[in-house]
Design a protein that fits this description.
Radius of gyration: 16 Å
Number of domains: 1
Strand content: 15-25%
Distance between the termini: 24 Å
Helix content: 40-55%
Structural class: alpha/beta
Order of helices and strands: EEEHEHEHEHHHHHHEHEHH
Shape: globular
CATH architecture: 3-Layer(aba) Sandwich
Strand order of the largest sheet: 1-2-4-3-5-6-7-8
CATH class: Alpha Beta
Largest sheet: 8 strands, mixed
CATH topology: Rossmann fold
Length: 254
Amino acid sequence: METLSLDGIEIAYDRYGAGKPLVLLHGYPLDHTIWEPLIPLLLNSADLILPDLRGFGKSTVPDGIYSMTDMASDIAGLLDRLQIVKAVIVGHSMGGYVALAFARAFPERVLGLGLVSTQARDDSPEKKEARFKSAAEIIENGVRQVAESMPAKLSPNPDVKNTARSIIAAQQAPGLAGALQAMAGRGDSSPILGGMKFPVAILHGSADELIPIERAREMKAGISQAELTEINGGGHMLMLESPAQTAEALKRLL
């Protein structure tokens, strides 16, 4: 991986292929490696940029609370340093929240938007409270419990669960805690959906246990030009469960 320093934050990223810039943002509590099955399927069509968001993978793990705006600004700074003015931004789960924050802050830089296993709504008060509680527990006890318990919610596929478990176990507690607090503090992105002027691809699995597929259908209803791909039986990790279908849906943005 390569790294770039952005206002004191080291952002690590991999880059493959050539063509229209395509940024793939991972979800919580994972890193850029979730996208690896898509690389051979997309590298002939796109300039693939796979960053580790702040707090994850090989990027800097700052202490304290993060925000979706912080993470979106990191991506804008990364694109600046790579001399990329506009890009297709694709986000999975928490990465989708970052992608929506990017679209809100930098709409003129978005060539297209991909929303994978994510939602525009903000958290309910109960969900916010649960995230803050989880953040405190992770700071106290580390990431082991997350690595043991979360994979079962991410996918019904045993191989995908094992892959996710290994990725989660390699993360650092302050990063997970900061991201949980950022997700709890994010706003509702629903109001910006109708004003989007770029193509949007929405992908969701019918068996997603973390974010119900109705959230994807809500986003589709709010974006006139969006295309929704529903993957029957898919869980929360479509890029690992159904890489070919995921890649085909994202190619519509290129």
